[in-house]
Structure formats: C-alpha cells, structure tokens
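Technical appendix A lists one of the benchmark inputs used to test multi-chain prediction within the project. The record comprises two sequence entries:
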Amino acid sequence: MAVPALELRGLTKRYDDGYLALDGFDLSVPDGAFFGLLGPNGAGKTTLISAVTNLIRVTGGEALIFGRPHDSMDARKLIGLAEQDINLDRFLDVEETLLYHGGYYGMSRADARRRAHEMMDVFDLLGKAKVRAPKLSGGMRRRLLLARALMHQPRMVILDEPTAGVDFELRLELWEYIRRLHAEEGVTILLTTHYLEEAEELCEEIALIRGGRLLARDSADGLRAAYDATTLADVYVKAMADAAGAAA
Amino acid sequence: MSRGLQALTGREIARVLKLWTQTIGAPVISSFLFILVFGLSLGGRIKQIEGFDYDVFIVPGLITMAMVQAAYANNSASVFQAKFDRYLNDVLAAPMKPWEVNLALSLGGVVRALLIGIALLGASLLVVDVPIREPLVLLVAVTLALALFSALGVVVGIYAESWDHTAFVNNIVILPLTFLGGVFYSVDVLPSPWEELSHVNPIFFLVQAVRYGFLGTSDVSVWLALGVTAVLAAVCIAWSTWLFATGRKIKP
C-alpha cells in the first residue's frame, strides 16, 4: 500500500490560553490526492496546517509526511506552503523572494536561479522580477505566494484559503494554476477554503471539520449521498448543525 | 555551512545593504559628529586622560557604542519585522535547524556592526591618530560585544509585540548605560559612589575591553572586562538558543 502524503494520528493542539483547536485529529490524505478541508472560522483548519508545517508547537499526537515525522528535515522539504495571509518579505524583489526561498530549502544557487525563472514564467511574473513585493498588485502577490510554495518542487502543496478576499477573475486564474499543478505534476494538494463551490470544483475528496474534529470525509457526491442532500451547501449546513447539536 | 544558513545569512546581509543609508550611513555620521564636536572642539580644553588626548580617548568608546547599538537594533528590528509581517514562517517551515536560523538572524547585526566599526575607524583616522596597541584583545572584545548584542537583539525581537518594545530597550537601557559606561570619561575621575556604581554597568566593562585593545589602557583589568562581557554574551546566546530550540514566543 502506498504511503499516504499526510497522516495525522491523534493530532492535538491546545494553545497557551487553554483553547483546544485540534482534538485528537485523525486524517489520512493519499499521495497524489486533491484534498479539501472545509469548515467555519475557528474549525481548526489553519491550526492543522500550521501544525503540519511546523509553525506551531503541537501538544500531542503525530503527523507524518510521506511516512516521515513532520518536523524532520526530510519531511519539511516535501511540503510547499502558501498561507492565507500575504506573508512576503518586504525587502526582497520577486526574483530574490524565490531565490532565497530556494536557498532555505537547500537548493544550489544555479538550480534556484533556473527554477525561479521557470516559476516566474509560469506565474506571469517575469516582467516584475526586480519589483519588491509591496509594490506588486494583490493578484501578483497571490501568484508569487504560489510560485514560492512550488519553488523547491514539493510533493505536497498546502494552500490555506488561497482565494480568500480575491476577485472572481483572479480566483478563476488561481484555480487554473492549481488544477494544472495537480494534473501535470501529480502534486498532492491540501486545500482549505470557505468557498463550497471551490471545494466542489477542485477537490476529489473533502473533509468537513468543526471544533478541531473531523465530521466527515468523502467525495462531493459521496457527501451528498451520505447527508441526503442535493448540494454541498446543504451537506455543510446539515453537518455543522449535527456537530453543533452533538456539542450541545 | 548549510545552504539554508547561507541563504538566510545572505538575506539578512542584503537587508542591511539595501537600507545602507539608515543601517550604516546614519550611525557612522552621528558617531563621527561626536568625535568632531566632543573631541576636536572640546578636546583642546580637556587635559589628557590616561596619557591620551581627549579626542583619541573617546574614539574606542564611540566605536563600541555605535557597533553594539547597530548589532542590537538591526537584529531586534529584523526579527520583529519578520514576525510582524509573518515572512518568518517561510524560514520556520523550511528544512533548517533551529540553531541555523538563530545564527543567520544574528549574523546580519554582526555584519552591519562591523561595517560601521570599520567605516567609523577609517573616518576617525582622518582627524585623530588612534593607535591599535593590542589587536588580539580588540578582536576578542569586538567578537564578544557583537555576540552579546546580536543575541540580545534577536531575543528582544522575538519577545517584542510592537516597535515600541524594541526601541524601549535601546533608548532606555542600552543608550544610557553606554553613556554612563565611560565612553566620554574615565570612571577613575568620578567621586564615590559613582565610580563604584559604574562597576555594576555591564557596558562599562565592554567599553574598557575595547579601549584596552585600542589604547592598551583601561580602568579595570582587561581580563575582568573580557570575562564579564563573555559571561553576558554566553547568557544572551543561551537565551536565544533556548527560544529557537523550544519555539517559545516564536511559535504559538
């Protein structure tokens, strides 16, 4: 059996203020999957991603990336992350952003230069190579975030609400980039989103989460059948209502 | 040296060079003005201190002051900005060991301070004849000073929750202690209890160690001065190492 791209076993995160964001979370994402995480604000989506990418301290459980502990150097190289917030280095231009990122991930200067050129070409940023991040338009910054996440050729890319707050045209453009990445390079994609149509349009499998717990996971069709619903929106409403009822 | 360490160090140095008017030009000019104003204009009216003209006597302390302030300010600002803008996450997620991230972030301040020190010494030599009598002591003293204040800058950058916090330590702690640390005078001339109180100021020992490297003379034993600076440097390095190793205050 193939090693899953991501395997979470009892992953738990309790913040210093006592808030339990992940409560013994179990999840397995197959290699090559396009996997969506859906849930309301505070469901634990970003915490889950931050735990997997070593941006927070995990309280308990384990996370494996292609069978390796998530905090190992090997595992880190296999993940690309595009966070929800535009977190670009204000002192670097587009090309430097990619080159330094490549360096952080152990790429040689020559490889990083070649790959950066390729990424700028793919994401239509070649004309802005020497422009610093704060001077870029919102759409360009989003594209640069994606290019940076892909720079070191990760086997799994984690996209945390990549289209939050972007206009419809840019959303379609980003969908196209992400689809192409998955189809042409076979990269595993873990996507969190608030947009139900985005999850349905892009993801082969969707997990619904709330209160740091997994409620259900299946394909969009499977979820509709399981919840006896005609749309994913109905599934979402029913699943969240069930969870709220159970919690009460 | 791993590629990650090289890249992050390169990024820190690139930041210093891109902002060179603020990071290097301004402190060199302001410190050089101290030498001109205090040394050349007032120096003629002050008798020699420890066998040196006043304008020569103050140069080691002023270079020390400029360098340690730069090392601290650079690292506290760079780390706080990286945290505030969240681009530190790109580094924290990368396959770099905690000590590599810590070291790379520290080296930006070291490079900036060295560039300032060299520029200021060069400018000073144009107007005063400053000797370097104990180059080995000077090398050790500068190394310890930069290790201490670079690590302190990283620590404060990690704990800071606003720009005010980083500025507070510089303006309320480092700057006054530097001025009271014998940069402009020998503490031997102070009346009691001020002379004794000067000996609890850690920066006093640092200034003495650097001054001994330049002039071959100091108000206290050079070994004591180097020892105190080394202990403080070790404490700050251990502190920053602990923060990166545990992720405390860096990762929620």
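Chain B touches chain A at residues 2-4, 6-8, 10-11, 14-15, 18-19, 81-82, 85-87, 89-97, 246-247, 251-252 (CB under 8 Å). Chain B has one domain: 3-246. Comparable benchmark entries are summarised in Table A2.
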